[in-house]
Request: fold
Amino acid sequence: MRRAIARGRILPQSLSTDPRYGRLSLKAQVLYPLMWINCDDQGRLSGDPDEIKYAACPSVSEITADEIPALLQEMETRSLIKVYTTSKTKATQMLDWWEVQRLQWAYPSGYPPAEGWTDHLRYHPTPKEIITENWPPSGQQASELLPSKLPSALPNALPSKLPTPEELGGEIRSTLMALPEPIDHLVEHEIIKDTLAKLAQARGLVPKSEVTTDTGRIDLLWEEPTGKVVAAFEIDVYEPRRRSLTKLKALHCPYAFIILRTNPEPLRWEQGVLLIGLAEELPTALQSDRESSKEIIEEEKEEEGRANSGL
Reply:
């Protein structure tokens, strides 16, 4: 296909109120824009009825090749097109072409111009050569038609749009610290999860709750619309359980957090996972529960040790 053939055409919005177009017959109104979008860079296409039928409206059975000459005559009478004869065939010129199109490159047409018509050319005859002629078209600024200037050098690094884990962790902690403290820990677990889900949606991410992975079930994931995991959350009671750390580390996602609902330490790293503590101080009533939790954790460690040693 020649480069002059249609590659992207703009239909003028003014066409809907143009009296010339409005006075055409219905079939001519259908055919005109279909011809327009099939023009080459100079606003031309064949003037042969059979070729127009084949190129512009092959699937419009209501318009036949025999009807096209009369439809072209309608358009020419309204000063929308000019049909003329070349040395080899007939050609059609769209008369409003350069009043509408904003092309960066305009290749020569396969049809010679009509008498008195001026072509506007800017094209590559070879990869390293540019030819311009009558450019830019009258009434158009060169800045509208030429591509933006490329930077002289590429930046050393792309600007980061993502916050650091500490920044995001601090934002999450501030949001969760503002929540009322329910008496029931299970209720608190769900409230925290719902709040984290809303934070994901505010960032244009998709929250997914209770997701089963190869290493176990994750309390909450933040995903991009494409399905890529951005952040993972485990909501633990008092201390980071070893299995929570294992599950999060296995995901290898940009952000991995464990929410510690009664831990007074704001942010702490452990094995590549950022721990977020929500309590300013541990309530006395929960001290015994925390000790019980530590015992459970120690039992988990012992079980893991026995499993590794084969006992």
Q: What stands out?
A: The radius of gyration is 35 Å.
